Amino acid sequence: MRNGAMKRTTLQMLIVFALLEGSAWALDHDNLDPNRPIQMEDAYAVAEGEIGLESGVRVNDRREGKTRVTYQPQIIYGAFANTQIEIQGDVYTDPHTLVGPNKSGNLHLGVLYNFNQETLDLPAFAMRIGAELPTGLDSKGVGTEVTGILTRSYGRARVHLNAGYTFVGTPQGQERSGAYRAVAAVSYPLGYPDRFQDTLIVDVYTRQSDLVGQRNNTGVEIGLRHQLTPRIVLDGGIGTEFYGPADRSALTGTIGLSVGF
């Protein structure tokens, strides 16, 4: 992992974090954000005024190529009612071999807006828009993405659907100029109603490969979020890609920590 890229990304995020002001809030293990610990998310924003500092480490053991480690710092902020601002900057090992829109050290800015809460007739619906700024290694052009998110309850379980499209700013070589992804997931509170500290999450996903002419990366993930204290949530997850290009993931593992301020 390049120390320069990590320090630059961490410094950028700390500067932004220092500019945010807010009172102490609790984080909810049942509020699901991408990569904590798997890629799906629910249709709800954090509460207005809430700040969450999230961080995780992801290990990706690929079927071809070196095992890659990713450091995933992120800040989420409930800027307004039903509106969440996100700032993220992933740092990867072996950064010069990356293909696709996500480059090591890029600064990612996103906004999630929840249009409606779930009703008897309608699921909760949210939309996320994001921009990938070329602050990282070997990065060119500004990428953008848009994602629609649905959440619907069935008893204690909640079903989530995510569908998004990424527009690559300046594709390099055989990289695609854009790619879709779709995720279907279920979350379930373990131990409820005796206790409400753990949420189990399972998803299945498919996304277009980073390079033209390759098969979709398709896989499954399972994760757990644990409420350690009212302000701290721990998470962990594993996954595998059972279909896709030759260098698809054989096994992924993620551990993370979220702290509310």
Tell me what you see in this structure.
By secondary structure, the chain is mainly beta. It is built from one helix and 14 strands; from the N terminus they run H-E-E-E-E-E-E-E-E-E-E-E-E-E-E. Residues 17-24 have low confidence and may be disordered. A twelve-stranded antiparallel barrel has the order 1-3-4-6-7-8-9-10-11-12-13-14. The protein has one helix at 3-19; strands spanning 51-62, 68-71, 74-80, 83-88, 91-92, 107-116, 124-133, 143-154, 157-167, 178-190, 198-207, 217-229, 232-243, 249-260. 7% of the residues lie in helices and 51% in strands.
Return Rg in Å: 18 Å
Taken from the alpha-carbon principal axes, the silhouette is globular
Largest sheet: 12 strands, antiparallel, barrel
* Largest sheet: spatial strand order: 1-3-4-6-7-8-9-10-11-12-13-14
Overall strand count: 14
Helix content: under 10%
As a percent range, the share of strand residues is: over 45%
* Assembly of the depicted chains: single chain
- Unreliable stretches (pLDDT < 50, length at least 5) are 17-24
Give the H and E element order.
HEEEEEEEEEEEEEE
Mean pLDDT: 90
Tally of DSSP helical segments: 1
SSE class: mainly beta
Distance between the termini: 29 Å
